[in-house]
Amino acid sequence: MSQDKLADWIENWFHGRNQKMMVVFFGLEACRCGYVSGIGIGPIAVVIEINDWDGMQKVMKYIWILRCLRGSYCSHSYKIKPSIRRLLTSGIAMNNSLGVAPIIKAEPTRGLVDEPVKLEIAHLVPNHQVTLHSQLLSEDDDRWMAYGHYISDSEGIVRVGQDESLGGTYTGQEPMGLIWSMKLAPDNRQEMRLRKKNMTAPLTITVSVYDGWISSNFDKDVVLASAVLERFYMAPGTTRLEFKEGRVVGTLFLPPGPGPFPAILDMWGGGGGLFEYRAALLASKGYAVLALAYTGHKDVPESKEVFDPKLYYFEEAFVALNNHPKVAKGKVALVGLSLGVTIALLMAAELTNIQPKCVICISGTHLNIIWNGNADVIEDENEALSKVKFTEDGVMIWKYLSFPFTKVSKFIVPVDKIRCPLMIICGEDDQNCPAAESTDEIKKMMKAAGNDHLLTTILYPQTGHLIEPPYSPHFRITKFKLRSINKTVRLLWGGTTKPHADAQEDSWKKILAYLEKHLVHEHPVVIQSNL
């Protein structure tokens, strides 16, 4: 039965009746349309509750609208809910004479987290407002989301890499804006970080398209189409091994193949624990990478033992990695972030038994804060309060705990002793530590010592402390656990979302190029691993 004949049949059958009935109307092309349960597949029905002839008149109004469509839509009463009314009267399907549901094309749908994704949405109404929305659920059950407002072109297409977002969590021409601009959902707990724990499983991101420009209550609106992206830190064939040798604890990632591979000792900051995602991603580029645990981990020795003045724990870690059968001996680099910077600089300057090929420091200082065998930034809360600053909202600013810098030599890392290439990356708006100011001091010290030719510095404006792998969300303020006083505080890390995202993308490219330059000669590295 044609759509017009079905409409006539419904009108004749109900004419003159005054009773509560249910009308179920199926469009001829319903099976090819996608507006059910937000998943974009399956036949759709309009279910309308009728109480009297006036109600019937209203029903017929919508039936006549439906005659113009090549698909159909759902509601739960003759008072069509707003999301469906938009679709019926001025939305996607009303003007889509082909009756083809919108579709999201993503390339690749599976890839490493640093791989750009090309997104295109087709079969939209030409020159029409739509909202693109992304969402993921973290391993901590936190919901992250982003969205952008677009206008389709004359062919009913949105090309995210070419078209501008006119509103949302990001604006402008941003191919990866739906990922790097992610924020915690409004109904979620706030001020958390997104940190991957299970390296063998991907980050799963759902990208959806909605009719019109919307900014909230996405779960209550109709999804026109959706696609799922899987973002991995480990490329296929990469091996993850728990590492325990002597006192040294960590996780070792190895690329596929017999090796030997150039290697990296990867050290995170004073928050403690063992974070693996940067190491896994670097291993996916062809390096053997040891993510080193050195504080706040149940299997790591006490702080006095780890942070002894001779740095035995860190020397043992370097030697163990250098001597691994799958590591190219003598081709080991150091990478540190935050407190990891201090440790990397100390290792390069003070440990004469190791020879790192290069050192990469991200968001740290040349201050030796572990000189007394303790890495705690705040041991006495009352004493620290005299130096800690606060925002109007009571968020802690730690930058001034160590700035202005002391002139006492035992508190300063002797960077004048460094004899290997050194790259320093930092943000000019780092509110956690004086990284930019420290970079200036390191320049002066190395220039006076005549080894400044080894130094490469990269400073990013409006960029904060937490410079992560590319397309990671920006964390300006988060909660932070102070183990020394068993208290959780709110910390200001700094940065502005867009410039910070640009810095993460650019710095990652420079890190990979720097490692290739100083580690890779006869050991070619796979720069991009496709899944």
Question: Mind explaining what this structure looks like?
Answer:
- With 531 residues, this protein is α/β, with parallel strands linked by helices.
- It is 22% helix and 25% strand.
- The protein is built from eleven helices and 23 strands.
- A hairpin with a 2-residue loop joins strand 12 and strand 13 (248-254).
- Helix 1 (3-14) packs antiparallel against helix 2.
- It is globular.
- The protein starts with a helix and ends in a 12-residue tail after the last helix.
Essential attributes:
531 residues; alpha/beta; 8-stranded mixed β-sheet; 6-stranded mixed β-sheet; 11 helices; 23 strands; 25% strand; globular; disordered C terminus
SS field, number of helical segments: 11
- Uncertain spans, ≥5 residues at pLDDT below 50? 13-53, 61-81, 87-94, 522-531
Overall form: globular
> In which order are the strands of the major sheet placed?
12-13-15-14-16-17-20-21
**What is the rounded Rg?**
29 Å
Q: Please tell me the overall pLDDT.
A: 83
- How many strand elements? 23
- DSSP strand (E) fraction? 25-35%
Tell me the distance between the termini. 47 Å
Helix content: 10-25%
Largest sheet: 8 strands, mixed
Question: In terms of quaternary structure, what is this?
Answer: single chain
Structural category: alpha/beta
Structure summarized in a few sentences:
The protein is an alpha/beta fold and 531 residues long. It is built from eleven helices and 23 strands. The chain has helices at residues 3-14, 53-67, 82-89, 177-180, 277-283, 303-306, 312-322, 339-350, 381-384, 435-449, 497-519, and strands spanning 21-25, 46-50, 103-107, 110-112, 118-122, 129-137, 143-151, 158-159, 183-184, 203-211, 223-232, 239-245, 248-254, 261-267, 288-293, 327-337, 359-362, 389-390, 396-397, 422-427, 455-460, 477-482, 487-492.
